[in-house]
Amino acid sequence: MNGQAMTMKFMYGGVELPTGPADTNPQAVKEQLAAAFYPELANAEIRGPRVEGDAVVYEFVRAVGTKGVTT
Q1: Phi and psi dihedrals of 28, rounded to 5?
Q2: How far apart (Å, rounded) are the C-alpha atoms in residues 49 and 42?
Q3: Distance of alpha carbon 48 from alpha carbon 52, whole angstroms
Q4: For residue range 34-67, what is the model confidence (pLDDT) as tens digits?
């Protein structure tokens, strides 16, 4: 075991999102990005973590639904 720290990546729609080096809480990252750049993330699901190489990856997945339709 080499003891090297793993990096964290946050993905949305196949794109790595910009985050700060201290961003380690996926819920906090989601809320910050929703407020500043991606309002659709407000209701997104957080999937992960999964390990890819030397990174821990979380993925934000938009909630899919029908707006305003009742049955």
Answers
A1: -65, -40
A2: 19
A3: 11
A4: 999 999 999 999 999 999 999 999 999 987 766 6
Alpha helices in 1-71 (DSSP H): 26-36
All residues at 6 or more sequence positions from 59 whose CB lies less than 8 Å from its CB, including other chains: 10, 11, 12, 46, 47, 48
Distance from C-alpha of 39 to C-alpha of 50, rounded to nearest angstrom = 24
1 three-class SS:
coil
* Dihedral sign computed on CA atoms, order 31, 56, 53, 63: negative
Nearest Cα neighbor of 7 from 22, 70, 43 is: 22
- Tell me the C-alpha distance between 10 and 60, whole Å: 7
Q: How much is the pTM?
A: 0.78
